[in-house]
Design goal:
Layout: H1 27-42, H2 49-55, H3 70-80, E1 84-88, H4 96-106, E2 110-114
Parallel strand pairs: 1-2
């Protein structure tokens, strides 16, 4: 049984984040040709496909310049604006994913962890 089997839609939007740290501006290509369509197919969201793809490249500027704490600020921003966390996490107790999950749990967010296969 997947955690998505019991998913109950509570909002009229879905926020997706690409955090691979690309230097090149490949976001449009990845979002419109890969991430968005794959999400629609995986979660069987076909009736909302156009609306999802129309919104899948919206941006939120958390800060204007890079510094050693910018990824942490981005992760905390995502947690602060989330109602539920679904994380692909390998259990390593250090790094950005571990810190973000710890922050989310401290704030009392519902958290589902999917171990990598």
């Amino acid at each position: 049984m997947s955690i998505f089997d019991s998913f109950v839609r509570k909002h009229d939007y879905l926020v997706c984040v690409d955090s691979d740290g690309c230097v090149m501006d490949t976001m449009n290509c990845k979002h419109f040709n890969c991430f968005g369509p794959c999400m629609v197919d995986e979660w069987e969201l076909h009736e909302w496909r156009d609306a999802i793809l129309d919104r899948c490249n919206l941006e939120t500027m958390v800060q204007h310049t890079y510094d050693r704490w910018c990824m942490m600020r981005r992760n905390r921003y995502m947690v602060d604006h989330a109602s539920h966390i679904i994380a692909l996490y390998d259990g390593v107790p250090k790094g950005g994913t571990a810190q973000t999950l710890a922050y989310a749990m401290k704030k009392g967010l519902t958290t589902d962890i999917i171990p990598p296969e």
